[in-house]
Write a structure and sequence with these properties.
Length: 199
């Protein structure tokens, strides 16, 4: 299995596979911003809309490939404010139901963390549904629980659920400041390969 960064054209060429992963994740009950049932066309449109962000350097997307099939993904979203160049948000970590139990979630998380360090990011943050299986993954990977917001978002079934905020300092300069004009964008086109260990 290979984890590969996607540039904008590669993302657009993979939208059908990515849409299949997204609909599977929502159908399984994961709270990642959508209500069930999520139609295939809506999932394709959502992924297509991400291409502009990738092209602009505001979003980095990786896909886990088994052959030509996308079985997992993770993204980093970057703030556009000058005082926030040192941080990024981990978003849309998804693993297809057929690929679970193989350590792929951990591998994707590690890929995103390593890429952030390489780009000079020193702080990562995320939110995930409280008491979801993802919480164990983040805690075991050294993320720190910052707190809980009640009734933050509706589950795919439409029930309001709390979210838990996590953060992780990464890189040697985890607490250091960011100089003016620092460029911390990740080159998502880099192939991180099968040798890299792993809302």
């Amino acid at each position: 299995m290979t984890v590969r960064g996607l540039d904008a054209p590669q993302l657009l060429s993979a939208v059908d596979e990515l849409a299949g992963l997204l609909t599977d994740t929502v159908a399984d009950g994961a709270s990642i911003g959508f209500l069930a049932p999520l139609g295939r066309a809506a999932a394709v449109d959502w992924w297509r809309e991400r291409a502009d962000g990738v092209a602009a350097g505001q979003l980095a997307v990786w896909a886990a490939l088994r052959g030509d099939r996308v079985v997992g993904t993770v993204s980093l979203a970057f703030p556009d404010k000058p005082n926030s160049r040192h941080r990024a948000e981990l978003v849309k970590l998804m693993v297809h139901r057929e690929a679970r139990g193989e350590g792929l979630g951990r591998r994707l998380l590690t890929v995103a963390e390593d890429a952030a360090v390489a780009a000079g990011i020193t702080l990562l943050h995320l939110d995930t549904e409280t008491d979801s299986p993802a919480e164990h993954l983040y805690r075991s990977a050294g993320w720190t629980r910052a707190g809980v917001i009640p009734d933050y978002a509706a589950s795919p079934a439409g029930v309001l659920r709390p979210t838990t905020l996590y953060y992780k300092r990464v890189g040697e300069g985890g607490a250091a400041g960011v100089g003016a004009g620092a460029d911390t964008r990740v080159d998502a086109g880099e192939d991180l390969g099968a040798g890299t260990p792993t809302r």
